[in-house]
Records
---
Amino acid sequence: MTGQTAIVSCLLALGAVQPGQPRAPQDMEAIPIMASDEQTLAGLTLEQAEIRFGTPSDSDEFALAPELPEFRNDLPGLFDEADIRAGVQIRERTWSYSDSQNITLWFAAGDGAWRAVHHMIWDKGLEF
């Protein structure tokens, strides 16, 4: 048994690594998710968000427009007029954040990935 094989065997025995289980990208360990840290969530990829938060409880995709429902009304202010006129596609994902709150992240395509452009933490049961 080589040294590397012995280490993997030990990790498997301890349950630290599961065979066939997907691993998060190495850079994910450096991204702590804290609701109060706007910069932590800004630019997070959709893939990274799904690794951190799991399967979303709700998903939607829509075209950016000058007028959006109240829940989404901050989004047009994050883009320039050309993007709004072009109807940039937005992906919206919502997860349970705690026993009493949800978190919604909005993603736009950029740099070859869907990246978070905005988020909102809101109380469960709140209607918009």
---
Amino acid sequence: MNEHPLMLLCAGACTSIGLSVAATLAAFEAGISRTVEIEEVAAVASQLELLPPEMDRASRCHWLACAALLDALEPLSEFRELRMPLLLATSDEHLTDDPATLHAALAGCEPRITLERPERYHFADGRSAWFSCMETAARLIADGQPLVAICAVDSGCDLSSLRALASRGELLDDRHPDGIIPGEGAAVTILTSEEGARRLRRTPWTRIRAAARGREQRHFRQDRSSLADGLTSVLRSLRKRQQGWRADAIYSPQPGVVYWSRELTMALLRNAALCPEPLNVVSLADGLGDCGAAGAALAVSLAALKIHRGELARVLAYGEANLGHVGACLLETP
């Protein structure tokens, strides 16, 4: 990826605070958030108002993903026909999700777009799943695919998911001050090469300068305190491969609980050369809640739009799943 960086051509999103990536960014930067009290679990969640509270998880994910896809395709509306593989990034904890049904639903969202299903198209790696998809996208593009789409989607706002979180004591409430506010959302990113962007006569939103993945053995779902070894190694890999590269901001999708905050602090102290001065960490969970597997893709999409607008030049984006999968990438002005 260092010799031939990937280009993020454009992106789309759907979240509890915006039905597009532009609307989500505007609301987030205005300090807007949407939390709804869920009487069944005596806690709050960041639900999309348009979706009925009783809608099940699969239906919510399908709706969010289709909305994000249509938003992502809007900048390419002048092309009457497009064909590209579609990769899916989903939860590492809802293994009953049906990726084939979701892929088919997305393939039917826009008739002028043909979304193909590669042999390996689904990655259930939670908040780091987008980075797993990106590695596969890089190989597909190197093999001649002009465009590759990645859809990352998740919801923790259906009643079944909320009850499961409540039973584990993970929801933010008076008894659990270190709990989370569940969120929901989807992001679709369309990747290409530098040559692909030139052929389409489009200016990409951002260049993905480098990326790395790893694994945290002392992950969120086990009992020992994290030593941040997984995130540290991922950031160290990026730092050594891109010496002298320093971010203007760090975009994080992690919930604002002690485990994740402590881990990020330790990893950044060991990789200070990558960090902005002064430190500038943008926490998406402050406005969107915990969007799970959609989190990293949303972080990348919002950061990419900021870079595209000239408001940032370099961003470090990362994501770590509850079961320990870690990914990060360096975004910069193309």
---
Amino acid sequence: MTGPYIQLYLSRLGAMPEDLSLVQSLQQYGNALSRVVGGYFTDRHGRKKIIWVGTMLVSATYLLMALVSDWRLYAVISSVNSFSLFYQPALESIRADSVALDARGRIYAFIQFLSGLTSSLAPLGGAAVVNALGLVDGVRLGFILSGLVGFAIAVARLKYLEETLPSNNAEGFLEAYREALKLIKSSIASMLVVDVLLNLVGAMTFLDNYYMFYYLGVDKTALGVLATVGGLTGLLFTLPAGFVVDKYGRGLALTWGYILGTLNLLIFVLTPPKTRATLPLLLLSAVIGSIGGPLYGLAHDSLRADLVPKEYRGRVFALLGIPPAIAWSAGAMIGGWMYSALGPQIPFIASLALRILLAPLLIALFKDMTRLIDEQLRDNG
């Protein structure tokens, strides 16, 4: 609900573009650190308890965010919010534990579709609230609503989730992660390289809403419309994307997801500021990106679950999130500096150029890391 307006909200609280980069970087580092702790407890003490406790903590931090009056305090609380996401490896693991390989794309798509039914319309609600109450008060109300919904989700998770991995007291913390690192080096290294590169390049464009509002001249309502159109397009394409991931393989979906993401950024970069063509071009960019997003995302999440054995998932999923988070933080800092020092368009142009230059390498890696799984899917089909 508040997503399209966070950057504008922080700018009203005194943050400059480079400050927005810092906030995002702190969030990434907090989340990366928390995943290490959460991943260990996920594999040693089960999935369910850590999920609902973490959900409660995240919900509480949203309520605190509604009280801040300075971007620095928001940075501190949002970092705590990110650290409270220590339950993410558990949530990712319990989902992977519950789905067979040859149905994973479709089941993941169905789960994503259900969760997106309300979230895809939330930006329009956010636009209405921001227009009625003003940017600052509107975003604060959004935080309060997010917190209350989060508490309800925590209760539902406590009541309905079923444990998929019993508690065990095997090796200690360091030994457990040494085993996880061995698994990553032996079978998942290519996937980690891809994640690092795409997070570095993608984070350079994180000021997109700030850029659209202040440079392209898109108003607050249009930002909500763009987010809603993108969300609904992604929602409508989620189920077909899941079918493609299972029927035609992870490699094809990753490749086309990447190509469509690059086309989406190309149109975004070419969009002129403050003309009649501005909003239509941004809508086209949002639609194309929202078609590529489910293709890439579902294939990526399915492949990660395919490659990691059940008893390692918490730790491996935790470790796989750390280098990309560091890369994302670096990309965000670079993008924020470029925006302020070199001009608003530069980080988006640089990101596009890197995506084009990296395309041959990444497409080759897609084929390499999906080859065995896609052969198994063909055999099963």
